[in-house]
Design a protein that fits this description.
Largest sheet: 7 strands, mixed
Distance between the termini: 46 Å
Number of helices: 7
Order of helices and strands: EHEHEHEHEEHHHE
Strand content: 15-25%
Strand order of the largest sheet: 3-2-1-4-5-7-6
CATH topology: Rossmann fold
Oligomer: single chain
Number of strands: 7
Structural class: alpha/beta
Radius of gyration: 17 Å
CATH class: Alpha Beta
Helix content: 25-40%
Number of domains: 1
CATH architecture: 3-Layer(aba) Sandwich
CATH superfamily: LmbE-like
Shape: globular
């Protein structure tokens, strides 16, 4: 296995996106002995707060807090993401280099245009990266599973499943706190709308809500298009009554 290959890969538009939406899941996978990676599509250079260099340093600290082994940046243009051929070719190169089995993408609906495009671009690239004759660097590779992070959704999408992140929630919060330039004093970010509460407390409340859906302290919700397979109904979790 080369140094860039991973088992689980999260792809998102901006540094800090994956920490907010699936940081606990990444930390849990890393603690279980899996190799975990992140691809940030942009450097966050057009963000209102901070700058690209500051956010790069914050991202490295956040990755360490989660136990993430590989963090790459596609260096696409922040605020101008497009599902076009140059962007596809660049991301295919990174998919082929990391060769993940499972990929986590942003949900296709969101108020930030970059988040919506990142989802569409990521799904298309996961397919195209497996085409042997597609002209991009690296050997063909197609991930086995594509998941969508549902955290902080306002639209009524029922999660396909929720990951119990109770043991990793504090690691998730430590990773989020690494982005002081973005979140210290903030009341909202990304797809998280303001409620008047402290931003970090809002993350705790939201994670507790998702956890309650599976009768656990904290959780992260996901959607997948495929029907989830169950081998033994006697082993199903979450009490019905």
């Amino acid at each position: 296995m080369t140094s860039q290959q991973v088992d689980l890969l999260a792809i998102a538009a901006h540094r800090d996106d994956v920490e907010l939406t699936c940081g606990g899941t990444l930390a849990k996978a890393a603690r279980a002995g899996n190799r975990v990676g992140i691809i940030d599509l942009t450097q966050g250079e057009t963000g209102t707060r901070g700058d690209a260099a500051t956010r790069a340093a914050e991202a490295e600290r956040a990755a360490a807090a989660l136990g993430v082994q590989v963090r790459l940046n596609a260096e696409l243009r922040d605020g101008y993401l497009a599902n076009d051929e140059p962007s596809r070719r660049r991301l295919i190169e990174l998919i082929r280099a990391t060769r993940p089995r499972v990929v986590i993408l942003p949900f296709p609906v969101g108020r930030h245009p970059d988040h919506r495009v990142a989802s569409e671009l990521g799904r298309d690239v996961c397919y195209l990266a497996g085409l042997a004759k597609y002209d991009a660097p690296g050997d063909p590779h197609r991930p086995f599973k594509v998941l969508y992070a549902l955290a902080y959704r306002e639209d009524p999408v029922k999660p396909s499943f929720v990951v119990d992140i109770s043991d990793c929630f504090e690691a998730k919060l430590r990773a989020v706190r690494c982005y002081a330039s973005q979140f210290d004093g903030a009341k909202a970010a990304g797809e998280i709308f303001p409620t008047g509460q402290d931003f970090y407390e809002l993350i705790r409340i939201q994670s507790a809500h998702y956890g309650s859906l599976i009768r656990k302290p904290y959780g992260e919700p996901y959607f997948c298009h495929e029907t989830v397979e169950v081998q033994d109904v006697l082993q199903l979790g979450v009490a019905s009554l």
